[in-house]
Amino acid sequence: MIRNLSTDKSEGSLIAGCMKNDPLAQRQMYEWLSPRMFAVCFRYIGEKEAARDVLHDGFITLFSKIGSYKGDGSFEGWARRIFITAALMHLRKKDILRHTEQLEEFRGEVAYDQGTIDKLDAQVLMKIISQMPAGFRTVFNMFAIEGYSHQEIAKELNITEGGSRSQLSRAKLWLKEKIKEFER
Length: 184
Known about the structure:
Elements: H1 11-19, H2 23-45, H3 48-65, H4 75-93, H5 114-119, H6 122-130, H7 134-145, H8 150-157, H9 161-183
């Protein structure tokens, strides 16, 4: 069952209603998914207004492509992919990785003080991540949060695998510095 809806519609009946372009079903779908999908968009974009625009674009795509959902896997996972793609398209338009250069592979581990990490709540960590430079944030989100491989990231962002690894290494170093600042 879908939680937080004004009716007791099941996920399947809500999807079916959206496939029929039922405005009530579309509104309920929006109300159900928008908080989580906004978080996805914001994590990639880092700016609230731009993330809202991406969220809007994502819903347009979701409603126009909902007929292609075949029921394989979770619907929310399928929808999440649409919103990630919308965010990546937005970032491609801004050409955020144009100056990505390949660095020597990151050597060594990024060490964190576990006590400091325990003090960071999810909101603080998300705020820190949202302040990352766009290239770092995009690759970090795709690798560390979404679970993409460097090969998949390279293909999605039209960069080399080395460029993806480089951006991730830089993101980890940047994050380490911000966590050190938080400790102070």
